[in-house]
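Record type: monomer structure entry
Structure origin: computed from sequence
Chain ID: A
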Amino acid sequence: MSVTANCHQSVIILCGLPGVGKTEFVSNLEFPPDLSPITLYHVCYDDFIPNNLNFDDINDESELQVNGLTWKQLRGILVQSVDKILARNQQEGAHVTTGVEETDSAHKISCEFENRLYEKAKKKGQREGNYGDTESDGFTFFVIDDNMFYRSMRYEYYQLARKYAIGFCEIHLHCPLDVARERNRGRLEPIPDETLIAMETKFEVPDATKYPWETKSISIDTAEVTDGRTMETVWNLVRKALNDPVKPLNEENAEEKEKSKKAIAASIIYQADQVLRKCVAESMKQAKISLSSGTFKSPSLC
């Protein structure tokens, strides 16, 4: 599958419960020649956001805070950091709007997040030897590595893809709960079992039948052996995302307006047809009456 030359960036959502093997999956990625050189931003939330919080406190403003910022705010700042890097990559200087208030503390953490993302991308490029020297050389992928159990979490990144007219796709990794729990227990900072179970009950799996923006998504069972065919499926999905980048909002609106115009035009033609049919029927009725009474005169249309 060929890749559209004018789309060289894509957001790749890697979602799934803790312990399904998301980070390991990223580390085992093998890049196909037609997508090289690559600059990869591995946005692993575990590297930026503390995970030692109670799942039930996610919507509680009194939850865990870092430098006066809540868990929600830190996640918002990370999205903002990706937004800023995308803006710089496209050299558009786009205004960043993510709903995060720019306090001194937030600005400081945002700069720290950006620097760490740049540093990680550079180090990975040197280690793999498979990346270009500049952002404009080859392809750039932002792999968002997080549980992303709520669809709204993933939609934030879809909005970024739409903002910059770049690719967007989702890879849902899953495995049986007992396998995920066993793997989770082997982590340096395991998440409590009850939190894992709660996430599973609330997990909103990508569903293209209800949400068209999730059309480019696949599901992979990490309990099974992942081989070359699995990787080929992954990169075919990425190629589709590059070939068919998300349309900017104004273009989407233009399409909707055009559809609306066509619908209105069709409606007007239909209404006019109904009026003419009624007029013809009335004229024919008048003509019959005139013939029967012997006083025929040419009928008039309405």
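Annotation 1: Residues 249-293 form the longest helix (45 residues).
Annotation 2: The helical segments are 22-27, 71-89, 104-128, 151-164, 177-185, 193-202, 228-243, 249-293.
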